[in-house]
């Protein structure tokens, strides 16, 4: 059985992480509670992706956090990453699965309930659902769907979903209420003065919302 936790999913941005560096940002974020880290660098060559990926893999070793590579299946294979996140215009999930094997974690970006419904649970492990809000970290994103749109995507998906798109700690309640397993963030951790503290704040909010959801009183 594949074990991974979508609760607090950090998507690295090289620009926002420039001051601290992507590897150190990831290390600190995981120390603060981040459960998955995605290497996303649209401008990087495969060689640079692999170099950064190896450094990330070393930094995250023994933490339990999973390393996911955005789009670049060959780089993920070379890094020995835990998996990939692919968009609708990138590799097909079937091709990525064939290349990476049964143990890899494969996530697919969906932007509509119709796309979520088409996901094959025999191939795909989770979906990235949204975008909930507009965000400057991904200028080419689709029309924001809000929390109602997020809930519709989550309900249509046959696999767990992580919500993405301009999300911060104050959105945790709505994200989990929509049925998502976790929250994916970029600027809420990347570029923050203290990435560990930022992650810890997000993780604390997730824990409180889940605790209240189990019927405990505040």
TrEMBL record:
Binds 1 Mg(2+) ion per subunit. Residues 8-189 form the Thiamine phosphate synthase/TenI domain. One of its GO terms (biological process) is thiamine diphosphate biosynthetic process. It catalyses: 2-(2-carboxy-4-methylthiazol-5-yl)ethyl phosphate + 4-amino-2-methyl-5-(diphosphooxymethyl)pyrimidine + 2 H(+) = thiamine phosphate + CO2 + diphosphate; 2-[(2R,5Z)-2-carboxy-4-methylthiazol-5(2H)-ylidene]ethyl phosphate + 4-amino-2-methyl-5-(diphosphooxymethyl)pyrimidine + 2 H(+) = thiamine phosphate + CO2 + diphosphate; 4-methyl-5-(2-phosphooxyethyl)-thiazole + 4-amino-2-methyl-5-(diphosphooxymethyl)pyrimidine + H(+) = thiamine phosphate + diphosphate. 2-[(2R,5Z)-2-carboxy-4-methylthiazol-5(2H)-ylidene]ethyl phosphate binds at residues 135-137, 166, 186-187. Its cofactor is Mg(2+). InterPro entries: Aldolase_TIM, ThiamineP_synth_sf, ThiamineP_synth_TenI, TMP_synthase. Mg(2+) binds at residues 71, 90. SUPFAM superfamilies: Thiamin phosphate synthase. Keywords: Magnesium, Metal-binding, Thiamine biosynthesis, Transferase. Pathway: Cofactor biosynthesis; thiamine diphosphate biosynthesis; thiamine phosphate from 4-amino-2-methyl-5-diphosphomethylpyrimidine and 4-methyl-5-(2-phosphoethyl)-thiazole: step 1/1. Signal peptide: none annotated. GO terms for molecular function: magnesium ion binding; thiamine-phosphate diphosphorylase activity. 4-amino-2-methyl-5-(diphosphooxymethyl)pyrimidine binds at residues 38-42, 70, 109, 138. Pfam families: TMP-TENI. Condenses 4-methyl-5-(beta-hydroxyethyl)thiazole monophosphate (THZ-P) and 2-methyl-4-amino-5-hydroxymethyl pyrimidine pyrophosphate (HMP-PP) to form thiamine monophosphate (TMP). PANTHER family: THIAMINE-PHOSPHATE PYROPHOSPHORYLASE, THIAMINE-PHOSPHATE SYNTHASE. This is Thiamine-phosphate synthase. It comes from Pseudohoeflea suaedae.
């Amino acid at each position: 059985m594949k074990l991974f936790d979508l609760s607090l999913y950090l998507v690295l941005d090289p620009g926002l992480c420039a001051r601290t560096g992507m590897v150190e940002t990831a290390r600190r974020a995981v120390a603060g509670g981040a459960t998955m880290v995605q290497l996303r660098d649209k401008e990087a060559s495969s060689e640079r992706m692999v170099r950064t990926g190896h450094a990330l893999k070393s930094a995250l070793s023994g933490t339990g956090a999973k390393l996911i590579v955005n789009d670049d299946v060959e780089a993920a294979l070379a890094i020995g990453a835990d998996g990939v996140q692919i968009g609708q215009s990138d590799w097909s999930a079937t091709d990525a699965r064939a290349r990476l094997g049964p143990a890899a974690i494969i996530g697919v970006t969906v932007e509509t309930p119709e796309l979520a419904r088409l996901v094959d649970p025999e191939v795909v492990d989770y979906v990235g659902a949204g975008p909930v809000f507009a965000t400057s970290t991904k200028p080419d994103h689709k029309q924001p769907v809000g929390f109602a749109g997020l809930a519709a995507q989550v309900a249509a998906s046959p696999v767990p979903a992580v919500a993405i798109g301009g999300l911060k700690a104050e959105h945790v309640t709505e994200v989990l209420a929509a049925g998502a397993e976790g929250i994916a963030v970029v600027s809420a951790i990347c570029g923050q003065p203290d990435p560990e503290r930022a992650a810890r704040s997000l993780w604390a909010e997730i824990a409180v919302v889940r605790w209240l959801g189990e019927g405990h009183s505040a």
